[in-house]
Amino acid sequence: MKQDPQTSLGFLLVDAARLLRRRFEQENRDMPMTSAQLQIIARLSKNEGIGQAALASLLELEPMTVSRHVDRMVAAGLVERVQDPNDRRARQLFTTEKSRALLAPMRERANTLFDEAQVGLSSKEREALFAALQVVVRNLCAADASANPADDRPGRRTGSAPMADDVKQDILS
Amino acid sequence: MKQDPQTSLGFLLVDAARLLRRRFEQENRDMPMTSAQLQIIARLSKNEGIGQAALASLLELEPMTVSRHVDRMVAAGLVERVQDPNDRRARQLFTTEKSRALLAPMRERANTLFDEAQVGLSSKEREALFAALQVVVRNLCAADASANPADDRPGRRTGSAPMADDVKQDILS
DNA sequence: TGCCAATAATAACCCTGATTATTATATCCA
DNA sequence: TGGATATAATAATCAGGGTTATTATTGGCA
């Protein structure tokens, strides 16, 4: 039905992402977790106790967006919000038993879908697609930080806190 | 800041699309047209007089989504809605002088941004990215229609009308 | 010490997109 | 000819994402 396929990379990319997300949500209506929530839990599970602002910067989301997500996810029993003992402004986030249990099966389904989306592409082509998208994301993140990527002073970045090196270590991998 | 880059194609794709869109909207706040509206006008300009349902199926969007868009765009003077003389349920859509005038400059800016997003990729890599995304979109569209792509009876498809061949001709290219 | 700038979270509001349900027509066919 | 069926558009409602502005705190520094 797409008689006149997109000739522009940008719109093609946006369309692909939307279609993928739509399919995911359609196929997982029985699951008590959306794709966005899955992504958040996946990140959080590797960074238990992190604050919302830091989580936002990991996900390249606005802090407000994360705040709303956490609201809903707390209500759904997927996340726990605990007062940070060292900072009365901040809350620490933790996954719950429920969300941890959902992580593996949801990832499974997601990967199956991602695979279906790539039917017809060779492994070489898939790797190329993956690598190219990583470049795109890196370009857009860099540009987001400042005009000159080298000039990446912390305060300039949207909602991101200057992060201590040991914290960075926790986050890596 | 993305210390732990996405290892999953799907989330990488969704992230790339979101970042791209965000940058676009940020850089075009002075323009009286959003990226979604640009895409709609681009399609409509090649299919003047089309109905909302048909436009929705061209864009792979739900009819309701298009309906709301048209509401806002009519209010913004970007689209005209005319009663279809042959079908009292339907309205025909037309671009306006205003939206036609915006099409070229907006496309220009969009292409510039898309180009920036691809910095670091060779032309060969860009072509591969483009081709791979087209495959992904095709896979997801086919799967959306029905389990078996061959079994694509019209009534099964979300909101899409069975379309006369001459109309298809108009839409192509 | 005491004030001012940076930060964490969030409220209010807008756009995009989807799902479900309605209403008004149009069609098809018995 | 009529009635079942399909289609066009849209109202209501929900999730995802963003921007701007507020409120508490924290922290640095004069």
Automatic annotation (TrEMBL), chains A, B:
Domain HTH marR-type: 6-138
Cited Pfam families: MarR
Region of interest: Disordered: 145-173
One example GO MF annotation: DNA-binding transcription factor activity
Origin superkingdom: Bacteria
This protein's record includes keyword Amino-acid biosynthesis: no
UniProt keywords, alphabetically: DNA-binding, Transcription, Transcription regulation
Family matches, as PANTHER family: TRANSCRIPTIONAL REGULATOR, MARR (PTHR42756), TRANSCRIPTIONAL REPRESSOR OF EMRAB OPERON (PTHR42756:SF1)
The protein, known as: DNA-binding transcriptional regulator, MarR family
Species per Swiss-Prot/TrEMBL record: Fulvimarina manganoxydans
